[in-house]
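Recall the central idea of this unit: under ordinary conditions, the amino acid sequence of a chain determines the structure it adopts. In this exercise we apply that idea directly, starting from the sequence alone.
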Amino acid sequence: MMSKFKVMHSCGHEVAHAFAGPEPARRQREEWLGKRPCQVCWRNEQAGAAMAQSQEWNLPPLEGSEEDKAWAQVIRAKAIAHNRDYHKKLTSSKGLNQDEELRAAIVSAADAALHEVEGQVEAKWWIEHRFDALNYIREKTAKAIAPIMGVEE
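Accordingly, the structure predicted from this sequence is:
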């Protein structure tokens, strides 16, 4: 049976919540929620941190509605961090030193993909590609080196 209850969140906002399950679990959920900011405040915190990270990385401002930009900012910060880490690992791999043609193709494709994804300014794109964006460099690099590796697409 679905029950509804109000929670005073740590941010000071009171929010109605719904829960389906046994009463002890509902009380536990209510206690847990009370120790956290409401969803709106949590999203604002996340968006603020992502905006600061975007400014630190000197990324271009996002375009779109304010709501889309706030959500996309969080998605973009996580995806860019993941892609930068992957780029670093990929381009510094010692195993690439044995085949100069392959190394050049990988570094070129990875650099281009990182530049491309960091330049994406459409908030809607980030929202629509929130899962794909995490592997952007991996996908672009794999396509670029497929002919060198003798792999057909």
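Residues 2-34 form one domain.
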